[in-house]
Design goal:
Blueprint: E1 2-5, E2 12-15, E3 22-25, H1 28-34, E4 39-45, E5 49-53, E6 58-62, E7 68-72, E8 81-83, E9 88-92, E10 104-108, E11 124-125
Parallel strand pairs: 3-10, 10-11
Antiparallel strand pairs: 1-2, 2-5, 3-4, 4-9, 6-7, 8-9
């Protein structure tokens, strides 16, 4: 089991079961929500994910185009978000309190990365979405 939490510890969650390796998105929206060059996430099936406490602190910001960001209303930390028609959770890797035992395997939206962003690993790179999204 892997435990994760936000900065203020008000929200805690667990992943008990299979999860993906880590993917990093370099699009402008992920740069803004993470405050850095990319947003590192792993995926897990909804059945493997549990909110342990603080669910009432979750807030969702939705842009007119449907893009969403979930965050803690106390500390502002990005939080896991349900996606893929309710079947998968996108989990920000930086929230994990335990080592997930996986590494970065892909970078997506590299075609729109910031000009100061240097990708220094040898993970696969895709100009837009990956042809085969990292699986959970």
């Amino acid at each position: 089991m892997i435990i994760g939490s936000c900065l203020c510890q008000g929200v805690k969650f667990s992943i008990d079961g299979k999860h993906s390796e880590i993917g990093r998105c370099h699009c402008s929206k992920c740069r803004k929500v993470s405050g850095t060059n990319s947003n590192a996430v792993l995926l897990t099936a909804a059945k493997n994910f549990t909110w342990m406490c603080g669910y009432e602190l979750l807030k969702v910001y939705e842009m007119p185009d449907g893009w969403k960001s979930t965050f803690c209303s106390t500390c502002g930390c990005p939080l896991p978000m349900i996606g893929a028609k309710g079947k998968l959770f996108w989990v920000p890797a930086g929230l994990l309190d335990d080592d997930p035992g996986v590494s970065v395997v892909q970078h997506i939206f590299v075609g729109s990365k910031a000009n100061w962003d240097v990708i220094s690993d040898d993970a696969a790179q895709f100009d837009e979405e990956a042809p085969n999204n990292i699986g959970a």
